[in-house]
Structure formats: C-alpha cells, structure tokens
Write a structure and sequence with these properties.
The complex is a heterodimer of chains A (90) and B (156). Chain A is 44% helix and 21% strand. Chain A is built from four helices and four strands. Chain A has a four-stranded parallel β-sheet with strand order 2-1-3-4. Chain A is globular. Chain A is an alpha/beta fold and 90 residues long. Chain A has a single domain, classed as Response regulator (Rossmann fold, 3-Layer(aba) Sandwich), CATH 3.40.50.2300. Chain B has a domain of 103 residues: Mannitol-specific EII, Chain A (3-Layer(aba) Sandwich). Classes of the chains: A alpha/beta (90), B alpha/beta (156). Chains A and B meet through helix 1 and helix 3 of A and helix 3, strand 3 and helix 4 of B.
Amino acid sequence: MKILAVCGMGIGTSVLLKSNAERAAQDLGLDADVEVADIGTARGAAATADVVLTSGELAAELGDIGVPVVVIDNFIDGDEVREKLGAAVG
Amino acid sequence: MGEPSLSRLLPVEAIVTGIQVPDWRGAIRAAGELLVATGVSTEPYVRQMQDAVEEYGPYIVIAPGLALAHARPSPDVLRTGLSWAGLATPVAFGHAQNDPVHLVIGLAAVDHDGHSSALSRLARMLADPTRLEALTSAPDARRIHAIITEYETSQE
C-alpha cells in the first residue's frame, strides 16, 4: 500500500510524519511505501495513495480527495500515528 | 549516510533559553535570528518562516508546546541547519491542541530530504517526556547541547 504524508512545504512535518509512518507500518505489519508531498502536489500524489496523513489545517485545505485522510495532531508521538493509521486501514 | 549529525546541525551558538517574546511572530523571529547569526540563512528567510504560518496555519506547532518553524528551501538558505529558542513565557500560535508554545525549533534546509534522519532523531529525542523535561529545564545552551550530544552518541 502507499501512504502519503502531506505538509505545507515538504521539509519539516512531512519528514517527521514519514519517519513515524514507516515505523507505524512496520509495527502494524503493513507492506507500505511512505511518500512525501507538499500541499501543492498532494492532490495529484494522492490519486495513487491508499491513505493520506496530514495536519488538521491542511486536511481542510485538501478537502475530499477520494482516499481516507488521517489528521495527526502530534507529529513527534509515534503512538498517535500508529493508532490512527491502524484504525484507518484496519 | 553522510548526513550531518544533529549536534552539528544544531551547534551551541544556535541555542538560546529564557528569551522573552511578545507573540508568535516574535517567537519565530527569535529562532530565525539564530539561523541568521550562525550563517544558516539570510534575513529574508525569517519573514518566509512567519509567512508560512500565515499561509498554512499553525500546523508547525508539531506537539504540545513545540513549534518547528521553517519555510521552503530557497536561495535565502545558505546551508541546512537548526536553531533552538526556549521562551521565558509561552505564546499562543492559534493551534487547537498544542498551544501555548514554549520552545521554537528553527529549521532551514537546502533540499527536501538531506536532513531527514537528523530531524527524525530530533523528534524521537523530544518524544521522550523525561528527556524533554531535562532539555526545557536546562539552565543554558551548553547543557542543552550536551544532552543532545549524549542522546545522539547513545543512538549510534
């Protein structure tokens, strides 16, 4: 499966999300590739993704993109990403 | 590998504690001025970091009390680096869950992924509540840098 981590600029929070999502996928036993996109390219990149991880503000900006969008509040807490990702794909 | 270490991306000169700022703009400015002072970016990058919050909202507040101030890679970024501005009094960024902010980490990057393992390491370090408490209650920059260096050495 493909997980897409979306942030505003593609260098900060999405990098943290990618790192957390890779560990979460491993913990959940998912065979997943995690890719990063900024908000400008996210819609196109989401077309081939199974799930999108992002912040609350950016989720609102993305709107309905046809795949589940998981909102993360704490980007350094690996547990939150694991729980929410598990719920979204489980 | 070849990626610079966290303790090198965040030198002791890029760390201040107990700084007094009026609001979130001032908090970002404090972290940005450290990037300028250490030769990581030029002055316009500070404004770009503030503008990013105007444009995308306060999502750079990545955890309770912690903001990761940054903007896109641009010609104003001279090299990849980090800064650390510990605030004397927390300020609100307008984030629903993670306000108020008492620590601003400044980030400037020359590309999208050259700093990813250092940044991930920083996040894992800050995710440990005991270590975060030790860092935020540390009396000065030297102690903070020492804690970071100790952590990084323990991970190798």
